[in-house]
Structures are given as structure tokens and as C-alpha cells.
Amino acid sequence: MFVLATLLYPCVLALLCVGAGLLVDRASGGVLPGVLLPAVGAAALIGVSQLTTYSVFAAPATPYVLAVLAVGGFALGRRRVSALVRCSWRCGWQLAVPVLAFVVALAPVLFAGRPSFSSYGVLSDSAFHMLGADFLIRHGQDYSHLDLHNSYGQYLNAYYNHSYPSGADTLFGGSAFLVHVPLIWGLQPFNAFMLALTAGPAWVLARRISLDGALAALAALTVTVPALVYGYELIASVKEITALPMILTLGALVVLHPRWLRGSTLGGAPFALVAAAGVSALGVAFGAWTLTAVVLLVAILIRDITAGRQSARQPLTLIAVGAIVAFVAALGTWLDVSGSLQVARNIASTSNPGNLQKPLRSVQALGTWLVDSYKHVPVGGPLELSYALAAVALLAAVLGAVYIIRIRQYALAAWIALTLAVWLGLTAYGTTWADGKALMLTSPVVVLLAWAGVAALRAGADAGTRPRRTSSLRLWLMFRQALRPAALLLALALVGGVAASDALQYHGSNLAPTARYEELASIGSRFAGRGPALFIDYDEYALYELRDLDVGGPDFMFPPRGIVFPDGLPVDLDLIPPAALRSYPLIVTRRDPAAVRPPAAYRLLWQGTYYQVWGRRPSAPAAIAHLALSGTRAGGPPMQCSSVEGLARIAKLNGAQLIGASPPELVGVDVASAPHPGWADTRLGLIMTRHGRLKATFAIPHAGVWNLWLQGEIMPAVQVSIDGHPLASISGQLTGVAQDPDTMAPLRVSLTAGPHRLKIVRAGSSLLAPGEGGSAILDSIFLTPAGAGGQATLRVTPAAQWRSLCGGRFEWIEVVRG
């Protein structure tokens, strides 16, 4: 699966985009440079996928339609392909930059060596994009059959049935379905690929400011992955990352306007497709960036017509054809433009800052931010260095702006100026969440300006009029000789700042647990169609993996049927009225011996490494009364006779019996008081902030095979050993919610009766390992017998024998008609 998701799928995406780009290029008269073919092709594929998914009947054919377009492009553009292949030896840098950008963007997953995604626990929107991409390809824009009584149906209806932009999702779903890659593992490669498409237009713009060779490649790479953009890519901001290459492609087409603006009537098709793709991916808000490019092109056309360089008829035809193409390619958005405008207004005016605790700083647009997350502010030396590098980049940007005008790249200068004006305008009227997006989308343009400063220094070293006086000549030569090293140092500062910033974010990323979600997917397949199912964890990604179980679960917006729960916490089955569970034939729980067993009406159907599936017995009555005795953790205090007597009275009146859940045998390990190297002891557990070891002792009541359970949030590698014997190295075990600690796969160990020594070691972190700076929280440790003694058991007692329950330990006791 790793090779399929991270290597094969991106290669198929590349073929699809290049093929579609060749088709568009052929139709528009061969106006596109080779480096723009993938981005324009992606825009065309977004437009086509939006059309096919508009109909419920055509939606399932979307993957094959995309493939046919690509094959047609390669067939019709075979001469162009041959020419590109022949000159590929001269285009090494152009080919290398998008590949390098893709590797950088996907680095956490690539170097982890397993399929995963890095937005885990940071931004749950990626879960909704998985849901949307899957639904749109299977059902199109038909929401009539959604069940609005569960989270799955509510989310799809609230987002996609109310004009939420879906351009990125339809391309993602169509391409992933084509190669049968699960969307949960295809999301990060797709996002990395879409970001890498930015390298093509970035190369065009870098060449336009007179950079070439390695410097042009470095400029294009840093323009593609500055710190803020890289941070948004790591949290899978699919809409924004898909819109970014479209923004830069519009800029590239503006500066390349002589190639197509005076050509055939279809010469404007690439521009129209890119604008439509941006609108489909980001919504009508993308019109702000489209408008800047359109204003410039209209000004150029008016200038040419006024100067007599072309007649008015041809531009009018070009504009009309482009308008038609843009309308058709974003048909779904235009047909519900009022809804799209409302979505844009909601995003721009929302008081919800999302995952931003405070507004981002404008200085972050300059490409460098030396901290593990773009949301955080560096402290001490890293903050000072961040501001120093930003100051250098700002000075370079000012120099670059002067240089662009000096070399008469007026179209480029005007496009950059208007793009910055869009950012300032959006910031003036937006809120924290919208401002962050606008800042991120502007950052590549600011970094490009800084690289224009590098070009200015290089040009100054190679040009100029020599002074006639000998003394002045000597100073002039010394100044010129200093400019070239200064250009190199500036380039190194720009590259170094971006590289260091990205490395820190790579180092601090949290990757989704692969094995656990694969097990959840197997549950979805095994029990498909047998729902509704209640999923008790606080996990939006379960809505995707269990989408065929009519799943209800705790999430940010929509509770399960008739169940109220605290936000951000799992469902507490003890607090749910027994009658409220009758609508759920299945309950999916984590495999956690310390957690409370589901009610007596449910029996265990299936157990894996991480999850258990409980099924309601046919015709099982709801409990008449349910007495919770231990909250969400097993093994409460001894049962008081007064409580049992009250339940017995209810049972006798209803001709029922008493059923109690006896907790498993459990041996706890005192984590909080165990010696450790100054790790912070918080309400979430021990925060393993640095390398060190924890040593604890515990006593086993009888010899046998035991399961050792760890709970917490552990991304970096942690070694576990007992009595000096290594058991396992644990990493990548997260729930994404710190207040709901992850229960990790049990470690089997044979132990004798008596005391034993447990050691937990967090090794020194390395910048080369993904996620080594991620979450490292140890909440609790306990052991249970590996056999039946490690699970709760049901004890059935006639009402007349209720006294036998006094003094016993139970998770709960129910009154159930026999």
C-alpha cells in the first residue's frame, strides 16, 4: 500500500495532468510552455470532474473519463511529447524542481515508510475531504438519500449540499479511484502533488526575473514550499493548496501573454480553465485573484488595440470563448452562485479561528518561521533569527521590486502589485481564519520578489557604465566584485531560512496511526450494511472508514441519535439511557480492558488488535434500569447493599433479573510517582519533552502470560522493557485528541508472580526522523491476563438472590427482563 499510495498514485496523477495539458495545448494552438502543461492539465481535469459529478449517473464514470482525456492528449500531442523528450536533457532543472517539491511536501510520510498523513490531530477538515471525495465519485451531487440522523449524513449535507467548493475533491476522488488507493492514504500524496504543480509556473516567473540554471531552480523550489505554505500543506488544506498553483499559473500566463493573447480564438482556453479550476477548488473567493489577471489582460488588449497592433474583433472573440469555457468548467459553482457567495461570506466573517489560537503574523509571508508549527511563535534565539532572515528577505523584496520595473517586466510587476493588493484587501475585511489563508496564498509571491533581489545583485555585478576617473573606477570595480558574492549569500539566506523552517515542521509533525485505521477499514468492509453503528471515539476519520455502516459518532457538530456527550470526549456508554441505544445494532469500541463494557444486550462479535465490535442480541430488550458504578474506567468501589437492594426491588416489580459486568483483573503501574528525568506531570499525563527514561515497579499476583497496555499520545519512538528484557519500540500511536489518550496494541509478556521492573525510554531525537518532535505523552500503564481474565464478564443474578452481589466490584448493574 505504501508504494501504491506514495509512488504509483502520484505517477498516475502526473500522467493524467500532462495528458490533459497536452490536449488543452493542442486545442489552444500550442501556446503553452512544457512546464505549464501539468498545472493547466490539472485545471482541465478539475473542470471535467466537476461536470461528471454534477450528475448521479455520470459520477461513477469520472475516473475513466479522466483517463480517456489523458490518453487522448498523449495521442494528439505525440509530436509535442517527442519534442519534449528530445530536449529533456537540456531541461534537467525544470524536471527536477517539481520532483524535489513533491519529496519535500510528502517527506513525513515518505521517510516514515508507511502510508499515513500529517494533518492528524491538527485540522479535521481532511476527514471531510475524504468523505466528500468518496461520496461525490459514488453518488455525484445527489444528497436526497442521506440519513440526517447521523454524523456522516449531517456533515455531507452541511458541506457539499450547501455549495462547499469541491473542485479539489472531485479530482482527488476520481484519480484515487482509478488506481484503487484508499482515500485516507491518498490524501497526503495528492496534496503534495498539487503543491508540486506550483513549481512549473514558479519556474516561468523565476526565468522572467532573469534567473537561470541552479538559481532559477532554487527560486522555484523556495517559492513553492515557503514555511507558511509548507505548514498548510502538512495539515492538508486541500482547497488552498489546490488553488495555489492556479494563482501562480494565472501570473505565468499573464507574463506570457504575447504567446496566446494575439493568437487563435481558443488561445485563452488555458487561462479560462485555470480560473475555473481555482473557483471550483476555493470558491468564488478565487475571483479576487482571477480579477487581477483579467484587469491586466484587458489593459494589455486596450493598449494593443489603441496602438493598432490588432483589431477589436479578435480580442472580443477570444474573451467570449474564454468566458464560455470558464462557465462550463465551473458549471456547478455558477449555477448556485448565491450559495457559493454565502459560503465565501461565512468563511470571511466567521469568528471561529479554527486551529489558530491567535492571528498569524505578516512576517511569516517572507518564507522563514523557525518553529515546529506555523501556528506557534518561536522564542529566544529562533525568534530573533526568524526576524533577521525576514528582514533580509524584505530588503531583497524591495530591491527586487525596483529591479523588475527597471528591466521593464511591467506585466509581472503589475500582477505582483495587484496580488499584494488582494492580500491587503482580504486582510482588511477578513477574520483570523480567512486572513491566515490569504497570507499563505500570498507568501510565494513575496518570496518571488525576494528572489528578484538576488537577480538584481547578479545583474549589478555584470552591468553598468565604468567611471572615467581612476579612483572612482577602482571603487566601482570593488563594488561590482562584491555584488556577486552578495547575491550568492542572499540566495543562501533565502534557501536556508525556508529549508530550516520546513525541517522544523517536518520534525514536529504527527502522523496518523496506519495499522489502526487499516483495522478500522476492515471493520467497515466486514460489517458493511449492518448498521446503524455507534462509534464511541472522538474521531472524524472513522466517519470515512465506517461510511458503509451508517455510523454515528462524537464529533464537532453532530451527535449520534438521542445521545448527548461532552465536546471533544468519547461517548460514555454508562451515561446513555438504555432505550437510546436500541437504534444501534452495532457498537464499535476501542480494545481497552480498563474501559466500561457495553450493556448486557450486546455481545462481542469481533475483536482485533485495536477495536472490538459488539452486536445487539436479536430481540434483546432494553434494560429497565442501569446503574453506573465506575464512570468510564473499569473496577469501581465495592458494591453497597443499599444500592443493590434498590435495584432488586425494581427487578421484582417487573419480573426481571440483575446482570452485572465484572471488571477484568487489572494490575496498575504508578506512572506519576515513578522516577523520570523531569518530565512535566500534567492532567494529560507525563509529557516526555526530552530524551530520558522512566523506571517503575509493579507486582504480579500470579504467574502466567500477561498483556502490557500503554495509554497516551506517542509519536516519537519509545522503547519498553521489563526486567531488562526489551519488549517493543512504540511510535506513531495517537488518537489526535490529547484528552482522549490512545490505547496502544497490547504487548504480551510471560511473568512470574511477584515484583518486576518496567523501563520506558525516549531516545534522543533526530531531525532526520519524521515526527521526532511530535506528541510524547504517557498517560497510564497497566497489565491484564492474556486470556479470558483480561475481559469483563457478565454475572446474571435472580432478583431474589440480590444479596450475593453485595461487596462485589462491578462496572455497572442492569435490571433486565429475562
Helical amount = 40-55%
Largest sheet: 7 strands, antiparallel
The number of distinct helices, counting runs of at least 4 residues, comes to 27
Q: Shape from CA axes?
A: globular
The total tally of domains equals: 3
Structural class: alpha+beta
Average the pLDDT over all residues and give the rounded result: 86
Distance between the termini: 49 Å
Number of strands: 20
Rounded to an integer in angstroms, the radius of gyration calculated over CA atoms is 31 Å
Q: Strand-residue fraction?
A: 5-15%
Give the uncertain stretches in residue-range form: none
List keywords for this structure.
27 helices, seven-stranded antiparallel beta sheet, five-stranded mixed beta sheet, single chain, globular, 3 domains, alpha+beta, Jelly Rolls, 818 residues
Can you give me a brief rundown of this structure?
It contains 27 helices and 20 strands. The protein is of the alpha+beta class and 818 residues long.
Q: How would you explain this protein's 3D organization?
A:
This protein is α+β, with helices and mostly antiparallel strands. It has 3 domains: 2-507, no CATH class; 513-622; 667-790, Jelly Rolls (Sandwich). The protein is built from 27 helices and 20 strands. Helix 11 (199-208) crosses helix 12 (213-224) and helix 14 (238-255) runs parallel beside helix 23 (432-462). The chain is globular and about 105 Å long. The chain starts with a helix and ends with a strand. The mean pLDDT is 86.
